[in-house]
Design a protein that fits this description.
Layout lengths: L1 H16 L3 E2 L7 E4 L5 E4 L8 E3 L2 H12 L4 E5 L2 E5 L8 E5 L4 H12 L3 E2 H9 L12 H6 L2 E6 L5 E2 L2 E4 L3 E6 L7 E7 L8 E11 L4 E6 L3 H23 L6 E4 L4
Parallel strand pairs: 4-7, 5-16
Antiparallel strand pairs: 1-2, 2-3, 5-6, 6-7, 8-15, 9-12, 10-11, 11-12, 13-14, 14-15
């Protein structure tokens, strides 16, 4: 009798200490013990069906179609997010935006601030920035015609195109008068899904001693270009909302929580 009682007490203790549930991934069933200690199956929450958009029109349409336009749109240089639920920001549709190869190259030029020789500069302009030269005039031709020369001199003056080295040798650049000190490139800001082209001003500074160039965006040029691209993106969102008759949708600039 006593043994039976002790065995019953142990079973009750084990049942009380047993885990009450094993929670699985969202969208899957999970299991709990009922008051009798039996494992029962409960249906899990439905999975979050986030979607990816591929244009501003897509993300605006997703916002409107899903629930009548009662969602928020949040945008920045990283993309546009349509938030389905004001309290659970895990539920969202997203238009992902990435910097274009040209804009990445501009950022790299600023970060490294390295001089490049004439061949490397021409390659960058003819390859990476090939479609960005609309405001650069005959820059490529002028650079091609530049010639570095050295001559004897006793002139110690320093000016653009000629720099003295002691009293014996001077390095001189022929054709430098046709190369501007500042150059404006028209940079596409995003790799895909939205087009915004912004002017980025560069300083082009030849170094006669090393026969190289410094080609760098002027201070503030990159951030100014991104601000212009974000303005273009916001304007496109509002234009699409007007086109689709959903101007009541709230639009915010920034990053969603």
């Amino acid at each position: 009798m006593l043994n039976d009682l002790l065995e019953a007490i142990v079973k009750l203790a084990n049942r009380a200490n047993a885990p009450t549930g094993i929670v699985r991934k969202r969208g899957e069933d999970y299991f709990v013990r009922n008051e009798n200690g039996k494992i029962v199956t409960l249906e899990g929450e439905p999975p979050i069906a986030n979607k990816t958009a591929f244009s501003v029109a897509d993300i605006v349409s997703m916002c409107i179609v899903e629930d009548g336009g009662h969602r928020e749109l949040v945008y920045s240089r990283r993309g546009v997010v349509s938030l389905r639920n004001g309290t659970d920001h895990r539920e969202r549709d997203t238009l992902h935006l990435m910097p274009s190869p040209q804009m990445q190259a501009v950022a790299e030029l600023q970060a490294k601030a390295q001089a490049m020789d004439q061949r490397a500069l021409l390659w960058a302009l003819r390859h990476t920035f090939r479609d960005c030269l609309g405001k650069a005039g005959n820059l490529v031709d002028s650079l091609r015609k530049m010639q570095w020369t050295a001559s004897s001199t006793t002139d110690a003056a320093v000016f653009r195109g000629k720099q003295s080295y002691g009293s014996a040798i001077a390095s001189e650049v022929k054709g430098i008068e046709n190369v501007p000190e500042y150059v404006t490139l028209q940079i596409p800001m995003f790799a895909a899904y939205f087009r915004s082209v912004q002017d980025v001003e560069f300083i082009l500074d030849p170094d006669e001693g090393t026969k190289t160039f410094k080609f760098l965006p002027v201070p503030g040029a990159i951030e100014s270009a991104w601000a212009g691209a974000e303005d273009d993106l916001g304007a496109a969102i509002h234009a699409n909302l007007r086109t689709q008759g959903a101007e009541s949708v709230a639009v915010y600039f920034g990053e969603p929580e």
